[in-house]
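User: Okay, second chain of the day. Same drill as before: sequence in, structure tokens out.
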Amino acid sequence: MAIFSVYVVNKAGGLIYQLDHYAPRADTEKTFSFPLDLVLRPHDERVVVAFGQRDGIRVGHAVLAINGAEVNGRFMADGKDVLEFLGNPANYPVSIRFGRHRLSSNEKLMLASMFHSLFAIGSQLSPEVGSSGIEMLETDTFKLHCFQTLTGIKFMVLADPRQAGIDSLLRKIYEIYSDFALKNPFYSLEMPIRCELFDQNLKIALEVAEKSGPFGPVS
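Assistant: Same drill. Structure tokens below.
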């Protein structure tokens, strides 16, 4: 079981804190001969697998490295276009590492803002008056848990679906925010959280939750 990441979003939908706690590695590196038996396409400034799955390589995985050198989007370390390089038979055999694309800071900001909007839509669509909005989104590989305070601050935790005690963890994170961010005289409301004590205590809370589950009764 694991807790993957924590997001804090202000009442306007802006991301004010994000921590990647644990990132499962799913990279796969293989040596290929020409022609490449995978179909690659450019997508969002990177090269991804569009068709063909084998040996842990899945559709949607991005090209992360070629012959041990990291790839920057659609270009190799020496500036060569990835698709042009892989289309040349003279460059084979070639070693390619595939894996899940790492989100950039801008992508995290955008996704946090999108969830803020979905949260509001969920609250309005609810047949019950005064709905709190989306509290959990579940997939086969993770669950997104959300706790919104009375002031509109949202605390979001992405965790393994089997991880217990997330409800009490969210409230513990709120306590840490109140103690080490709000009581910090140099912190301004709604602004990014840059506080060493907040970071330290949050990481301790995540480690405790992973090892022992809830801090208290689970609601």
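The helical segments are 82-86, 105-125, 166-182, 196-212.

User: Thanks, on to the next one.
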